[in-house]
Amino acid sequence: MTESQSREVTFKVDGRSLRGRQGESLLEALRRYGYQVPSLCHHEAVSPYGACRLCLVEVQKGKRRKLTTSCNYPLMEGIEVFLDTEQVVSNRRVVLQLLLAQAPAAERVRQLAAEYGVNDTPFEVEDPENRCINCGLCARVCKEVVGVEAIGFSGRGAGKRMVAPYDETAEDCIGCGACVFVCPTDCIGMSETGGIRTIERWHRKLPLKTCSVCGRHFAPTFQLNKFAEWTGLPRGHFDKCPDCR
Ligand code: SF4
Ligand code: SF4
Ligand code: FES
């Protein structure tokens, strides 16, 4: 945290005076005070990307009032925030129509849309089976938290998709499952059969290590070898599952 980010600031939400840290994400500050703001692409562990545009709010700074995404809006002294204004709600409804067209099979999107009375979309549906909203959260977690860059966007515009390199196998993927855990629309998929973990969307299959004490499969061998490399600990240290260590 920089010195300016540790500075306290005062801001208002729908007329209520509150305090927060300069530069922190407005969305996170709002949530800390219990405000409900919908979001799909935000996670506090990684940098904001502003992809889903659901976290819209209106912010007034001096005389200027504008509609903005709150996840990537840095909190600052004196701003006034308005949450569910007519403008916010009508724009959020359009965002939900767009998301419904992009990912019509995503249950989470359909649920959120229904909460705003949006049950259909006037926009063109390209793939009725698609669940990915191109929020990039999987790739940000993979890079910024796991420290691997196994996946990324390919293509542009309407052809933009989150894939493994060349849409083949993500050879750098260690099979940790972090991307599966954070994906807001559950469209990556992980399964384990016959001692093999499969990360489905990235076509990655990794044999699992058998614990030298209790004999159960516990983590991909490739992942454990990477841990040994990163930590400098001997590979033998990772022969046992966390329960038997
Ligand atoms: S499972 Fe693979 S792609 Fe997903 S976060 Fe872990 S290393 Fe990255
Ligand atoms: S796979 Fe999931 S996390 Fe990744 S971009 Fe698509 S919706 Fe977002
Ligand atoms: S959560 Fe802010 S744009 Fe997605």
Features of this protein?
245 residues, alpha+beta, Ubiquitin-like (UB roll), Alpha-Beta Plaits, 2 domains, five-stranded mixed sheet, four-stranded antiparallel sheet, 6 helices, 21% strand, globular, binds iron/sulfur cluster, binds FE2/S2 (inorganic) cluster
The CATH topology of the largest domain is Ubiquitin-like (UB roll)
Helix content: 10-25%
Strand-residue proportion: 15-25%
What is the rounded distance between the termini?
35 Å
What is the C-alpha radius of gyration, as a whole number of Å? Answer: 21 Å
The appropriate CATH architecture of the largest domain is Roll
| Count of the separate structural domains | 2
CATH class label of the largest domain: Alpha Beta
User: Count the helices. How many?
Assistant: 6
Mean residue pLDDT: 95
Please give the structural blueprint.
Layout: E1 8-13, E2 16-21, H1 26-32, E3 56-61, E4 64-69, E5 80-82, H2 86-102, H3 107-115, H4 137-146, E6 152-154, E7 161-163, H5 178-182, E8 190-193, E9 196-199, E10 204-210, E11 217-220, H6 221-231
Parallel strand pairs: 1-5
Antiparallel strand pairs: 1-2, 3-4, 3-5, 6-7, 8-9, 9-10, 10-11
